[in-house]
Amino acid sequence: MNALSPIPALTIRAAPLDDARLEALVRGHEGATPFHLPQWSRAVEIGTGQRAHYLVAERDGALRGVLPLTEIRSRLFGSTLVSAGFATGGGPLAEDEGTASALADAAWALARSLGCPTAELRGGAVPPGWQESTGVYANFTRALPADEGALLGLIPRRQRAEVRRALASNLEISAGSDRRHRDAHYRVYAESVRNLGTPVFPRALFEAALDQFGDEADIVIVWQEGRPLAALLNFYLNGTCQPFWGGGTWAARKCRANDLIYYALMRHAIARGCTRADFGRSKIGTGPCARKRIWDFDERPLIYAVRTADGAAPRQVNPLDPKYRLKIAAWQRLPLWLANRAGPLIARGLG
User: Fold this and answer.
1) Which of 3, 150, 157, 267 is deepest in the core (most CB within 10 A)?
2) Could you count the other beta carbons within 10 Å of the beta carbon of residue 146?
3) What is the DSSP letter of 9?
């Protein structure tokens, strides 16, 4: 009787971000997001100064799974290891649950060796030994028609009327990643998050993301007489468009630019050959979440996995936490120039 061949052992190790096999595995996996690509890890490291780590699982010399991680350090919010940092998704991307769990175990071991008392996986199943975190965020998606001409008829009636009014006005729409679009996006985004009471991310993060993703990222903007009203910075992967960093000015409301930007983005994505739009996460109970519900996007509650060292306090950076209420109200009253100067120093530690 022939003996059974032993199954090669699974090896978990750190990998350099320039390993071409990482990108190949991510692009070939149905659960992949732009945040799993090494381009994202490089952009976050360049744009925020927070250190990137990338774990891989190998068996018999072949990649079986990957896990991008960002080591977040902040004097205000403490230290943590996140997959993926500054993203709404991430977590192990693997061929089976056993490999995903092994990557999660390795991430926790790495967190402890780095002195990070907490770790978070923003995607995938909750591994053994990790706690489930849910009820904070929801994710919103929708399928896109093959013909952009059919899109308007698929929009809910109320929003369709708003889009038609915006289309009949003197608003202009453009897409690109040149200096004009980058500058306009930052102006709009910075004002938008200040109005929400949230510190703006470093401008270098947006610049690095556009540089790293190249043709797979761009900005869509709604203009009025040369002034940007609403803007979205978008990523494209495997037929899915993901508008990620965006917002609108106070003037955008009166002109219905906040509705027009969604429609313009979806038309643009269809022209690029996308079949799906992922509008990302929003905090349940907030205005952005309510807006996406009005658009009747497909809603799914997000489940994250968190782990905290014995005796350590869980990391709290949720702006809906009551202890942040007064801080948010004060931030909303800051002059924009001051918010833009102080915001990146705080936001780089949020992750």
Assistant:
1) 267
2) 9
3) P
